[in-house]
Design goal:
The complex is a heterodimer of chains A (310) and B (244).
Chain A (H helix, E strand, L loop, with lengths): L5 H6 L7 E5 L9 H15 L5 E5 L5 H8 L4 E6 L5 H17 L8 E4 L4 H5 L1 H5 L7 E3 L5 H7 L11 H13 L3 E3 L14 H13 L14 H8 L3 H15 L8 E4 L2 E4 H38 L6
Parallel strand pairs in A: 1-2, 2-3, 3-4, 5-6
Antiparallel strand pairs in A: 7-8
Chain B lengths: L3 E6 L3 H8 L5 E5 L9 H16 L4 E6 L4 H8 L6 E4 L5 H17 L8 E5 L3 H5 L1 H5 L5 E5 L3 H4 L13 H15 L2 E3 L14 H14 L4 E3 L5 H7 L11
Parallel strand pairs in B: 1-2, 1-8, 2-3, 3-4, 4-5, 5-6, 6-7
Helix pairs in contact in B: 1-2, 2-3, 3-4, 9-10
Classes of the chains: A alpha/beta (310), B alpha/beta (244).
Chain lengths: 310, 244
């Protein structure tokens, strides 16, 4: 969200997000960039009040000024747009390392997320993803406005127009052992960014493909869809228990798979089932953390100014 | 190049006999995927008998081995000699070089003509796929590349479109690399809910047709009734047109 719009920043903590991106880039007009930088230090604790992690997206061409303004305690990740060379990531790393030291932030804690939005970035993708230990999560994007402009690819079509580009990103992430952000194809022929139903389909597709990470959205209307879609439902949990129960029947038989009700049960299915159960538990834990953070914030606000809660 | 490769556990003589009657161009005796961990040692002791059974038919015979137990697996399988080995989960050219050297030594010790045994490299992990071009060129023994069970090993699941996540990219990448290196790309274009094991003959035929259309030369399967559709789809004179 644009850091220059106070009503977005002030209310962001109420939205139930897992992470919030404070934006200095495309949503901030050029003449407000300096003003925007001056707001980030205070915005970080504000958006974190509901338990969300604070990210900041900086500008491609004002790295030093932007980083000086945003590397403060509480910042979790820097999103760097239009990355094209590994050197850019190494430069960010060295500046962040200095700022962490100067500002009493534990060294190495702030992550870098290099966005790939051009053909050149794709050509250098493996070196970019491996350029710094601060890159811990990497992968494809489901959006890609800038990318489609750079490549001359149409955005809203009913087939997967980014097979190669997304594949390159994901193969790099998997090869380097990073957290993988996958982007299963879900047709978006309308271009809406506030369509909660479509966001739910996208998030469900990601969950069904085994991904735990969402790419984020541009409108608060999609937050609940993302959270809901990425969380295993009761049916998924029940099915996972069933798969593990069937898989136990293989123990000691010397067989590596059986067919039950037209489904293959083997160690791969069992691993998927265990993953679903672990992920369901982690989602519940994250929801609990966020609920606690919200309760704490509300209690503090009530103490300071009972009228403000209305 | 074989049109159909059927994978059977080395420990199941009845399945091996069935495979040798299935019409498969190649039989892959498996020491990796279809054999329980505790049975692997006994499995290696079965390899010689299994090769004899499989060689009774006209099919080529390969043994699928695990790079993690390369020397033990190779020691078990070079007499009587199979046509080659399928190396599962290959991740680096060094693993191929190691296998090449071990095969040369075994060929020499056991009186097999040097360079007889071929290698089919199965790249089933991200690292293996990333290094596939170097893997394909690591030894003249490498004659084919396959994604093997990459969808399972890498935990790639079905997208809403029924494509298996990442597989369209990995398949096309593998085919280009294989052709650039002068080796055969082996595979079929499976779509959910099929993942090989339970696919009907009809769905196997369609997967093979799609695979052939993007450049695969032959595919692997797990059931005897999947062999005929593979032979039909990958036949030299089959229509190159895609049916549905």
């Amino acid at each position: 969200m644009p850091v220059v719009t106070p009503r977005f920043i002030d209310h962001a903590w109420r939205r139930g997000c897992d992470f919030i991106v404070i934006d200095l880039e495309d949503s901030v007009p050029q003449h407000l960039k300096a003003h925007a930088r001056s707001l980030v230090k205070d915005a970080i604790p504000k958006v974190s009040k509901g338990g969300a992690e604070a990210f900041t997206r900086i500008n491609h061409d004002s790295v030093l000024a932007d980083l000086e303004a945003i590397v403060w305690p509480g910042l979790k990740r820097v999103k760097y747009p239009k990355t094209e060379h590994a050197e850019e990531v190494r430069l960010l790393d060295s500046i962040i390392t200095r700022l962490e030291r100067e500002r009493g932030i534990p060294p190495g804690t702030i992550e870098i997320d290099p966005g790939i939005e051009t053909a050149l970035g794709t050509a250098n993708i493996f070196e970019i993803a491996g350029a710094s230990p601060r890159v811990r999560e990497f992968g494809a994007s489901t959006g890609g406005y800038d990318y489609s402009r750079d490549l001359g690819v149409e955005m809203f079509v009913d087939f997967d127009q980014f097979v190669y580009a997304k594949g390159e990103a994901e193969l790099a992430a998997r090869t380097l052992g990073l957290g993988v952000r996958g982007a299963p194809f879900v047709a978006n022929t309308t271009g809406s960014v506030s369509d909660g139903g479509r966001a739910l389909l996208q998030a469900e597709a990601a969950r069904q493909c085994g991904f735990h990470l969402g790419g984020g959205g541009l409108n608060p209307a999609v937050v609940e869809s993302h959270n809901q879609g990425l969380t295993p439902g009761q049916d998924d949990v029940r099915d996972a228990h069933w798969v593990l129960e069937q898989h136990r029947r293989l123990i000691g038989t010397g067989e590596t798979w059986i067919e039950v009700e037209g489904r293959v049960i083997d160690r791969y299915e069992a691993a998927r089932a265990r993953d679903t159960l672990e992920w369901a538990a982690l989602c519940a834990e994250r929801d609990r953390q966020k609920a606690e953070a919200v309760a704490r914030t509300r209690a503090e606000m009530a103490k300071q100014d009972p009228a403000a809660l209305k | 190049m074989p049109r159909s490769w059927i994978l059977v556990p080395v420990s199941k003589p009845e399945q091996i006999e069935q495979a040798s009657r299935s019409g498969a161009d190649a039989i892959v005796l498996d020491l990796v995927e279809l054999i329980a961990e505790n049975d692997k040692r006994a499995g290696r002791a079965n390899v010689q008998a299994a090769i004899r059974t499989a060689k009774a038919g006209a099919a080529q015979v390969f043994v699928q081995i695990d790079p993690q137990s390369l020397d033990a697996d190779l020691n078990a399988c070079v007499w009587p000699e199979p046509d080659g080995i399928v190396m599962s989960r290959v991740e680096s050219p060094e693993q191929i070089a190691h296998a090449d050297a071990a095969l040369s030594r075994l060929e020499h010790e056991r009186g097999v003509a040097p360079g007889t045994l071929k290698i089919v490299a199965a790249v089933e992990t991200a690292r293996g796929n990333h290094a596939a071009y170097d893997i394909a060129r690591a030894s003249p023994r490498v004659r084919a590349l396959t994604l093997g069970r990459a969808d399972l090993v890498m935990d790639l699941r079905a997208e809403p479109s029924h494509e298996i996540h990442l597989m369209p990219y990995l398949m096309q990448r593998l085919i280009i690399i294989a052709r650039a290196a002068g080796v055969a790309p082996i595979g079929a274009w499976w779509r959910a809910p099929d993942r090989g094991l339970l696919a009907t003959p009809e769905n196997t035929y369609e997967a093979a047709q799609r695979g052939r259309a993007i450049g695969f030369k032959g595919a692997m399967c797990l059931r005897a009734n999947q062999v005929e559709p593979l032979n039909r789809a990958f036949a030299r004179d089959a229509s190159p047109r895609l049916n549905g």
